[in-house]
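Data card: per-record layout.
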Amino acid sequence: MTSSSDRAGRPAVLRDVARLAQVSVMTVSRVLNESPGVKASTMDRVLAAVRELGYRPNSAARTLVTGRSRALGVVAFDTRLYGPATMLFSIEQAARDAGYTVRVTTLESTGQNSGEEVMRGLMSESLAGVILSAPHDWAAETLRHLTRGTPVVVVDVDIEQESAPVVGIAQHAGARQATEHLLSLGHQTVWHVSGPVNWPSAQAREVAWRTTLTEAGRKAPPPLRGDWTARSGYEQGKRLVRRENVTAVFAANDQMALGVLLALREAGLDVPGDVSLVGFDDIPEAAYFWPPLTTVRQDFDEAGRLALDLLVDQIEGAGGRDGLTVVQPELVVRGSTGPAARN
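The structure for this 343-residue chain is written out next.
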């Protein structure tokens, strides 16, 4: 429990209130900003802690001292894709609940803007903090151009950064689950339609797929490179149907799996009777493919909320947690996978 003696005479900060009320910093922010959805009992505890500690939010004074407002910057990458778009929506919702606004810079490719250019534009807006939701290599380069002391969180990679907290979804674990599921059904090997080579999530899924096959004593076929789109999955699917003994396919995302599914159907192959198929992401439409798609669910909502919570911790004086916070994926088994056909 935080007391005035514990704080050695310093003014109470949001983290002190959160600790005394036994809630998160984000919940305190939601109460103070009168955001909906907070239980009455929780609100009472937070307000009692505010009174006991004499906490006084002073956004105007903080802006004068730090040059920052209650605006957050988010750098997102290709929000036409389901994962980045869902992550961004979750971050925006969580920020609104915590009493912050969000200013978004969306990149279509890692070569579109240098990290220096993007950060120069963002930091000219007196932001309270920044979330980088972008491929790892680009995010690492961008961190070098942040103003010293700027609160920052990196999200959507499961690689630890030395200079910022990271929230990542366990890509290796998800790809391993997909590959092991297909092997458990009796398939001798698993073909892979991979994502773009410059995306760390695609690299991680491909490495985990290959490693899982090797550990099972199976030879990994050459991966077929896609670009996350259904069109690229369809093109690679047409290549797969020309090969012999393809009975199981792991596509690195659900959109590419949809394209593979069409190519298999056009070739007169039954799914899962002739070929089993697994995707990745669990997009809302995955359950309505025919057959419904077995896939790996990524909890983008949870990752976005965690990233915002970590950033608010830093902004409100809590210091934040260093290192990597991992969100675990979940294999969702549906009708697109089944036992390997007996020869």
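Known properties of this structure: The chain has a mean pLDDT of 84. The chain is about 40% helix and 15% strand.

See the next section for split statistics.
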